[in-house]
Design goal:
The chain is mainly α. It contains 53 helices and 4 strands.
């Protein structure tokens, strides 16, 4: 009856009134408290199961628990009853999802435990259960034996029996629930401990104090483990455990825990240091981890802010760990303040403000400051007449903000705390407020951090502790100023970016002696360089063809001051870092120019001395800790090479000239050419456009001076290495067996030889310097036909050397002739090419002495072209497995080597003949011309073997033929007239190349259509085909005397042959590759010119080109024009030159509209207009807001 009556009251009476009801039931019945207690305890599982987990259903079980707690006080000291109460009633209630119920249950449970003085019983039941649930959820080991690592030692799991029946029935809690229970229990225990201590009770419960300390130990182990786990565990630790744990740490200075005979200690300082170490490891990870670290620090400072900072900071005692004196803490804050993520910046700024409010002390007011001269400030006082409307508005806004100008208000930064206020104001303005407020605050407040500095030597900042060094030393002030500058450089509003950059560059750094060295190197090489790359700072760049701006000038001044006090090795490292920025970031036109000027400004200092590779490393070891990478001269030249290479992305020659000029200045200032390996030096020079370093080029004198500089410190000599280059280049590789090579190898040798010939003629053109080179070439040429295995690379390298040298001399000769014409027209005398002409004649004489040997060698080697039967050989893996890229010869490697030797021998002989005919008589070249002509006919009349190898060999023969025909077409007809006439089919006919051309076209078209060659190889053959046709057709215009010869001899090609070539052109033009475009269009012009020549000589009235033929030509040309790379000027020029030929343009039929339609030229003109109009419409659509 008593149990039923009491249970009926649980639904009607609130839990607070239950004790009175229980007393009434006991007084009105004969049931003892013990009987009633056990009856209620037995009935609780049934009542608990019937009540809902959410809503107001928790009132009944809570009243039930309150009744049991009240009865417990009537039982006396009964720990067994309390243990049963904890397992049977409180634990099931704690497992519910209702947070309000959980807090009420914990309060009720703590009251019951406290009233019975049985806190150790809580540590034997609920606490081990929660801690074990956390450990199992994180898969942490649970040990009952002490090891060296105390991170897994939990006090409440040391002697706890996991096999308890109650534990088995309850199972395990989820991690979030277990941590929430632990945090709530620790919070209630701390509250009761504070109440006990506040009453100064002498009989304070020792078990409560022990529980707080032991639980603090266990929770600290859990928190450190959770922070080292994934984000889910860190989030659980920061939301639930960390804050009450930090509060506990503030109350308990140290915790001593015994594990058997082992005694472990947890100190406040050690735990905070462990927390900071966890944050450090998180900072180095991603965005989410950084935010978690800031959450941890936020909880840390919130605990300090809540009034217990005296306990953590230890004002009256020395602390082993003090976060404000940890330099890495301030470094991480600065990194967070400039992070790209706005949420990270906000968290970092919050941490900074709350830490300043805690760490700042009254000692700052005693710091004295020394004023700087107003002339050194970035903004000067202006008269009222000089103030613009915008500045007046900014002054008005500044007064409303309370940040008036210093010269008017007389305020100064008198302490570090004042400087912090200025910094916080400026940062908040940059992050949160409008542009006009930013301008007002920046203009009037940024000077405060420059106007006053702490008294004493600013270099003695090492004596400061980390916190005071932030705003009490010049270096610290500049570290925080870089945060403001970087935020300003990255601001969303371009006006703010311009304001901040201009204020930075306007500072008279020369008046702040040594201050530039206080600016962090990372800021200079990172945010500053990226900020200078912003186009908004270079609005005047390129105007009127002047590739400069005020920003570039300001940056040049700053970097000049920045590098002025540096040691040579440190300056070398700085220039290397600056130049390497071109590799890491993408620079625009203005940004790349700014970078080039900054590099040259740092390098070109008056006290700069050349630094060899060895001395650079030695001197670098003496520098301070800012430099961590040893940089030598070769590394610097590689970086400058990248900077010069990047300028090729911009096509304006004036722009590229200025960039390359700054690069050469930097290289010549810091590097000795004699200290750089020749190969690397040649690679660097090759990146400079040759028009800048060739004869009469603007950079030629500077490069020559750099190359031939004489310094006794250097044993090497660049000129001597260039002279000795052929010897080292020709050395055999020493490979055992046949010396095989392919097109890639030959291409690399050719590029290397071209770089050498360019550098050689750049340094010198004196005959005495070439004497050794010419003697070496004569020696190699005389031994060319001696017993050497076929395919040996020595012969190919010999031909490459001669070809590259002739090619470079031809370029120089054209420059001299052009300049001579200009000077002659101006009335001056030209004498600069005398040495060059003497060198040309000397080279021609040497080549003539070995030309016969070259011809003999070529006759022997060219036999590979006529092979009829070849063994089936596997292709190289590089050919079979190749996907994309340049087309490769589908030949075995051994045959490829022999083919390349033949091609280069014919190419070299053709080049030598073309070169020597200008400096010697025709008789000496007769045998060479005869050989070339015989080779030409043999290739043209050769029939292809119906195999892929035979087709590839024929293709290679056409490749060699292209070089031969180019040499023959440039020579006078009279030189090979005797060779042509015996080949005529009809001896009575006039001089004609009809049979030559028709045979050539028939055989090469057959090779193109027989299907033996792959598609990529047919494209290569098509390119050689039109180069050969171009050479055949241009025989009348390449030599001045050929035109008069042809008038005497008659037409070189018949009209039918020319028209067939024209039709072949129109059929091939539409699908022509990019490499064939120019040669095909040149053939069009040559055909039209020869038809006009035949018409004039034959007194014909028609050119022979019909309307349909011309229409097909313009349609194919238009398709080609649309598919051609528009960046290439040559194809467009060749197209216009071919279509708008003088023999076609005057013909009205090509313009007028008739029954067939519009004329071809009119059609092409209309298509061009339509294309331009469509492009304009597309641009307007792109600009449309729709």
């Amino acid at each position: 009856m008593a149990l039923a009556a009491l249970e009926s009251c649980f639904r009607a009476v609130p839990p607070e009134a239950i004790p009175a009801v229980v007393d009434c039931v006991l007084a009105s019945s004969s049931t003892s408290p013990s009987q009633l207690f056990h009856s209620l305890l037995d009935s609780f599982p049934k009542v608990h199961a019937l009540q809902p987990n959410h809503g107001h259903g928790h009132a009944v079980p809570l009243s039930h628990a309150a009744a049991l707690c009240h009865l417990l006080s009537h039982l006396g000291e009964s720990k067994d009853a309390l243990r049963m109460l904890l397992w049977t009633v409180f634990l099931p209630l704690l497992l519910r999802e209702d947070v309000q119920l959980q807090q009420q249950v914990i309060s009720l449970m703590c009251d019951a435990v406290s009233s019975n003085q049985s806190w150790e019983l809580l540590g034997e039941t609920i606490l081990p259960f929660c801690i074990r649930s956390c450990a199992v959820a994180m898969d942490l080991p649970i040990t009952h034996e002490y090891a060296a690592d105390d991170s897994t030692m939990y006090y409440y799991l040391w002697d706890w029996d996991a096999g308890d029946d109650h534990t088995s029935e309850a199972g395990l809690l989820p991690l979030s629930k277990a941590t929430t229970l632990l945090a709530s229990l620790l919070g209630h225990a701390l509250k009761r401990r504070r109440n006990t201590l506040s009453l100064l009770q002498e009989d304070a419960d020792a078990s409560l104090d022990s529980l707080v300390k032991n639980l603090t130990w266990d929770m600290s182990r859990l928190v450190l483990k959770m922070l080292a786990h994934g984000q889910e565990y860190r989030s659980c630790a920061t939301k639930n455990l960390l804050h009450p744990l930090l509060i506990s740490i503030t109350h308990v200075s140290s915790v001593t825990v015994k594990f058997g005979t082992v005694q472990l200690k947890l100190s406040r300082s050690g735990f905070l240091e462990s927390i900071w170490n966890s944050c450090v490891s998180l900072f180095s990870l991603g965005r989410a981890e950084r935010l978690d670290a800031y959450d941890i620090l936020s909880l840390y400072f919130s605990a300090l802010k809540s009034g217990q900072q005296y306990a953590v900071l230890g004002a009256n005692q020395v602390q082993n760990f003090d976060l404000r004196n940890i330099t890495e803490f301030w470094d991480e804050l600065r990194r967070g303040l400039v992070d790209k993520d706005s949420l990270v910046r906000k968290r970092a700024f919050y941490i900074l403000k709350i830490s300043l409010s805690i760490f700042s002390s009254g000692n700052d007011e005693n710091q004295q400051c020394s004023a700087r001269s107003p002339s050194a400030l970035p903004v000067q006082a202006k008269s009222n007449t000089a103030v613009t409307r915008k500045e007046r508005w900014a002054n008005k806004e500044a007064k409303s903000l309370g940040v008036e100008e210093i010269t008017q208000s007389g305020e100064h930064c008198s302490s570090g705390q004042d400087r912090w206020k200025v910094f916080v104001l400026l940062y908040e303005m940059l992050q949160e407020f409008g542009t006009h407020l930013v301008e007002a605050a920046w203009t009037h407040q940024v000077m405060l951090l420059f106007e006053s500095t702490p008294q004493g030597d600013y270099l003695n900042h090492i004596s400061y502790r980390a916190f005071h060094a932030q705003m009490e030393s010049v270096e610290g002030i500049f570290h925080w100023m870089t945060v403001l500058w970087e935020c300003g450089f990255n601001h969303d509003n371009p006006q703010v970016r311009c304001l901040v950059m201009q204020s930075f560059l306007d500072i008279a750094w020369e008046h702040y002696k040594g201050y530039t060295q206080m600016i962090p190197r990372g800021f200079v090489l990172g945010p500053l360089i990226r900020g200078l790359n912003d186009v908004v700072h270079h609005k005047d760049f390129g105007v009127g063809g002047v590739y400069n701006s005020e920003t570039i000038k300001g940056a040049e001044r700053f970097f000049s001051n920045y590098a002025r006090e540096l040691m040579t090795s440190d300056r070398l490292h700085l220039v290397w870092n600056l130049a390497s920025a071109a590799k890491q970031d993408s620079f625009g036109r203005a940004g790349l120019m700014t970078l080039a000027f900054c590099v040259a400004s740092c390098a070109c200092q008056s006290d700069t001395q050349y630094l060899s590779c060895a001395s650079a490393v030695k001197e670098l070891a003496k520098c301070n800790g800012d430099i961590s990478i040893a940089v030598n001269a070769t590394d610097l030249l590689d970086a400058l090479w990248i900077l010069s290479e990047r300028s090729k992305q911009h096509f304006n020659p004036k722009y590229r000239l200025k960039v390359c000029e700054q690069v050469i200045k930097a290289a010549a200032s810091l590097i000795s050419a004699a200290d750089i390996p020749l190969t690397q030096l040649l690679n660097f020079i090759s990146t400079i456009p040759r028009e800048f370093t060739d004869c009469f080029g603007p950079l030629r004198a500077t490069v020559q001076k750099w190359f031939v500089q004489k310094n006794e410190c250097f044993e090497r000599n660049t000129l001597l290495e260039l002279i000795d280059f052929p010897t080292t280049f020709m050395k055999h590789t020493g490979v055992v067996g046949p010396d095989l090579y392919d097109d890639d190898d030959v291409g690399a040798w050719e590029a290397e030889a071209r770089r050498w010939s360019r550098a050689l003629l750049l340094v010198t053109s004196e005959e005495q310097h070439f004497k050794q080179i010419l003697m070496f070439l004569e020696k190699c040429g005389n031994k060319l036909s001696e017993h050497s295995p076929m395919g040996e690379s020595v012969q190919v390298k010999f031909f490459i050397l001669i070809f590259s040298l002739i090619e470079e001399l031809e370029v120089q000769q054209k420059k001299f002739v052009y300049q001579n014409n200009i000077i002659t027209d101006g009335g001056s005398e030209w004498t600069n090419g005398v040495e060059h002409c003497a060198l040309n004649e000397k080279l021609a004489k040497s080549l003539l002495s070995v030309l016969e040997n070259m011809v003999v060698f070529s006759k022997q080697s060219c036999s590979v072209f006529w092979l009829r039967s070849t063994d089936i050989m596997d292709l190289p893996c590089s050919v079979k497995g190749k996907l994309g890229g340049p087309s490769q010869r589908r030949l075995a490697t051994s045959i490829t080597s022999s083919v390349l030797q033949c091609v280069w021998s014919m190419r070299c002989i053709s080049s030598v003949v073309s070169w020597c005919k200008h400096y010697t008589s025709d008789v000496s070249l007769h045998s060479a011309f005869s050989f070339l002509w015989e080779f030409c006919w043999k290739v043209i009349q050769h029939c292809t073997n119906a195999t892929e190898t035979g087709a590839e060999l024929h293709l290679a023969a056409y490749e060699a033929l292209a070089y031969v025909l180019a040499a023959l077409s440039a020579a006078p007809i009279s030189d090979f007239l005797d060779f042509v006439e015996p080949k005529q089919i009809n001896r009575a006919s006039k001089f004609s190349w009809d049979h030559l051309a028709t045979t050539f076209l028939g055989n090469i078209n057959s090779l193109l259509t027989n299907g033996v060659l792959t598609r990529s190889r047919r494209a290569v053959l098509m390119c050689w085909k039109w180069l050969c046709v171009d050479s055949l057709l241009s025989v009348s215009c390449c030599c001045d005397e050929n035109e008069s010869q042809l008038k005497r001899l008659g037409p070189i090609f018949s009209d039918s042959t020319l028209r067939s070539i024209f039709l072949d052109i129109t059929e091939s033009l539409e699908n022509a590759g990019e490499n064939s475009v120019v040669s095909i269009l040149r053939c069009v012009r040559s055909v039209l010119g020869l038809l006009q020549f035949n018409m004039m000589n034959g007194n014909l009235s028609s050119l022979g080109i019909s309307y349909e033929m011309m229409m097909q030509l313009v349609e194919s040309s238009w398709v080609l024009h649309l598919s051609c790379n528009k960046r290439r000027v040559a194809p467009i020029a060749a197209l216009l030159s071919a279509i708008l030929h003088p023999s076609i343009f005057p013909n009205l039929e090509m313009h007028q509209t008739n029954e067939k339609g519009k004329g071809p030229l009119k059609w092409l003109h209309l298509m061009k207009i339509l294309k331009l109009n469509s492009l304009k419409i597309m641009r307007q659509d792109l600009k449309s807001p729709c």
